[in-house]
Amino acid sequence: MSEEISKKSIIDLSTVIAVGGIILYQLGWLYWETFFNSLNIDSSFIDIPIEKIISTTWWTIAVVIIVFHRVLDLISTNKHIIPLSDGLLYVALALALLYFVYNTEDIWYTLATITFFLVIFSLEFIKRFLGSITGKKYMYAVAIIMYVLAFYFYSSKATKDANIIKSYRYNDIEIIMNEGNKIIKGKFIYFMNDKYFVLSQNKEKKIVTLVINNSEINHTTLLTSKSK
Questions:
Q1: Using alpha carbons only, what angle is made at residue 45 by residues 41 and 46, rounded to the nearest 5 degrees?
Q2: 199 neighbors 184 (Cβ within 8 angstroms)
Q3: Spatial separation of the C-alpha atoms in residues 73 and 90, rounded to whole Å
Q4: pLDDT for res 205
């Protein structure tokens, strides 16, 4: 009987990992699509390796490990009930971590939040009041909550990262074109699909996104010093 439960747990865990990989890819794609669209780069240009897209979501991976840690421990010991206070504590820690990733300057607020939840959910009367929950229900509920929050998080973070690039003050790339040795200076965004994506100022002093084919370029220099 215990062997059957163990096999079922392994199958369930394998399913979670497979589905989780698909979700992580979806969230990673959401980040890059939003990021490039915010910089006026069409989605059709996106050509990023799958492993890089998934690795973009490594904060989500860390959060999922934190949230599901207790459940995975219960699976390995063939138990099915966990204190709801423990479950909520892991969720609170995960949310605090996501908040810190989005607002790295608010480290003290993050630490204060974590300390608060550690104290609250360790109180005995709180544990008794909240009771228990099955590991399966906990996993399903948290998976849905974290997916919705992660969807919002990566969309917002991509927009924020794109805005940081758009507010650049100094050029960090110089491109010399084949035709007439024309020089283009700007803010390097990304290189993919054999194309350089660069933010540059046009004649009207407006910031525009340039898409330059590698075949059109004579020489490229990444500037190490601040250059206007």
A1: 95
A2: no
A3: 13
A4: 80
Where exactly are the structural domains of the chain? Answer: 2-166, 171-227
Q: Which CATH architecture has domain 171-227?
A: Roll (2.30)
Are 79 and 121 spatial neighbours (Cβ–Cβ below 8 Å)?
no
Residue 40 zone, left/alpha/beta (φ > 0; ψ -120 to 50; rest): left
Residue 123 DSSP symbol: -
Q: What is the pLDDT of residue 123?
A: 74
* Cβ-contact 153, 168 below 8 angstroms: no
Can you give the pLDDT at residue 29? 92
Beta bridge partners, 173, equal 186, 222
Express each pLDDT in 160-183 by its tens digit.
889 988 888 788 888 999 888 888
Alpha helices (H) along 121-134: 124-130
Retrieve residue 66's tokens. 């934190």
- Residue listed under structure tokens 């979501």: 57
Q: Give, in degrees to the nearest 5, the angle at Cα 75 between 69 and 78.
A: 140
Q: How far apart are CA 44 and CA 225, in angstroms?
A: 33
Q: Exposed (0-12), middle (13-18) or buried (19+): which is 13, by Cβ within 10 Å?
A: middle
Regions in the chain scoring below 50 on pLDDT: 1-2, 4-5, 7, 10-11, 227
